[in-house]
Amino acid sequence: MKQAKYIFVTGGVSSSLGKGIIAASLAKLLQARGYRTTIQKFDPYINVDPGTLNPYEHGECYVTNDGAETDLDLGHYERFLNVPTSQANNVTTGRVYLSVIEKERRGEFLGKTVQVVPHITNEIKERMQLLGKSGDYDIVITEIGGTVGDIESLPYIESVRQLLWDLGDDNAIVIHLTLVPYLAAAGELKTKPTQHSVKTLMESGIKADILVCRTEHELSSDIKRKLAVFCNVKPEAVIQSKDASSIYEVPNNMLAEGLDKVALQKLNLPEKGLPDLTKWNDFLHRLKNPTATVNIGLVGKYVELQDSYKSILEAFVHAGAANQVKVNVVSIHSEYLTKENAADKLKNLDGVLVAPGFGSRGIEGKIEAVRYIRENNIPFMGICLGMQMAVIEYARNVLKLENANSTEMNDNTPHPVITFMEEQKTITEKGGTMRLGGWDCQLIEGTKAYDIYGTSLINERHRHRYEFNSYYKEKFQEGGMIFSGVNPDTQLVEIVELKDHPFFVAVQYHPEYKSTVANPHPLFVNFVKATVQKKLNN
Asked: Is 158 a catalytic residue?
């Protein structure tokens, strides 16, 4: 079996420079040249996965088909490459240590003292090579979370150093992403932070093969030469990454800078001609040349942090481009939404999405949003908790089930229309125990959901503990709510919709996780289409 080649992406100077976008952009270019490419993320925090992290701490928790709760960067990987990721694509320090400790408990180390080197580093190296040894990929790109010099990143940096030695020349390279800041007072770009960052990396025994420099201003040839000389890289291996108006422009920017070409040369791989970015650039053209703008409200509990709803925002970008319109997302905090101010906040919107979430905070605001949307014929989409809020609103205001609620919010509600899933009742641990990953859903012919998907069986990703209480199913159907999608095995209600409404569809699953540049999610595409229609009719 042919050995995979490895590219390690590290970061320096500052966090949040966009290692994930650079990794995804390079992977896109390599894929477009015909190389089977995947990306994995190694995170230095001790949580076993992001599943128990508050969105304010970490942004959204992204979910894969196989039920892994992962870092949001995996969403970028899938959106760029249109290839599903898995449990193997995201590893945390917590997962590494948990695995090593479990091995120690089983006696696998034969009484030896368990240490960071070699036991932790061996575990990391093994996981770094897992995808490469599968035979499915020619190139594996590994993003190392955190910043070089951080204490928590040291085991990963040491593991990379060892792997570079193990794999040998031409089989592995390191790309170091840094910041070249602009000092307005001096009127110049400063290279010293990058020099120090590269020096820190070299002190750990790793020489950067390629420098990618984030900058607000153009890097002159003199600055590139200075960075090359003092950071010990070739001049062509100093890559400028200037701020872009959209993350989807970055692959073309990296192509212009020759990032993929230099990487292939250093890995001793043929270029295979120019990358085929025809479909990608078609998407970019539609994205940059909208024929109209729609305003869609995003009603959520975590709207202060954009990354909390990253996949939803990107799905709107994809759906907007598919309809050749610009989607302007208006964030609305559900905690401050009331019956008194709902009209002021929602009346001028072309559509509203009620977002997922957990816990009781801001719930009544979401319910109020659904009521106003339903009564005023504003296109509506609900996701996960958003679907549950649509059910509660309908129960209270249409079916007149007084104080109907979810048992998540009120254990003593007289009408628990949303309740704890049966298989969840014996679970005591929070991490990795929800209904996760891809599950089938059977669609009912003649419904809006069936028309949207154009098929009777779909598979969508889930992340929830509560479900529609089937005890109330008949009452809701008699009252006019349509259950257009159910799980064929458990009969769990997956999709609810209303007939006499421009667009009222709410789903228990997370369609945003499966929306990509190449395949915008049909639910988002049709929802945005409905908002365009509403605007035209006004």
From this structure: no
